Amino acid sequence: MKNKRFVSFVIDLAIAVILALLVYMILNCLNVKVISPMIGFIVWAVLICKDCFGGVSVGKRLVGIQVVDSNNMQIASPVKCVIRNLFYFLTYIDILVMFFNSKNMRLGDRVAHTEVTLRDKTLQKVEFSKIVVAIGYVLVGLIIVEIILYFRASSFGLL
Prior knowledge:
Elements: H1 2-29, H2 36-49, H3 58-63, E1 65-69, H4 78-86, H5 91-99, H6 107-112, E2 114-118, H7 128-155
Antiparallel strand pairs: 1-2
Helix pairs in contact: 1-2, 2-7
């Protein structure tokens, strides 16, 4: 399972980086000044929200795994997926916890009460409105951080 999780993460990271580069190129073509943390936040936004759609990301779908709620073994809610993925900010600690845990659970899995299992298409799907709300909260939070960074950079004459 560790190998599938790793391959899934690499696929998702590659997708996030490609999306961030596309946004960067589009903004550059539109003559919008871009500071480098903005691109990093796009990558983080994709990584944080990647499992919100039915507990699977593109990478997880390709390798056949999904995120489930460890309390009831149903597809994890979008909020739980966001909470577990927020721990990517503690990447090295998160990975260490996973390798020394008998169930291969990341720190984010332990906090959000989720686990990664083989994909089961018979599980009940999550309501689309819950997905939109979870992703909306993440995007609003990141946009606020972007605005703060933009004004800080401009006050220091970096733009």
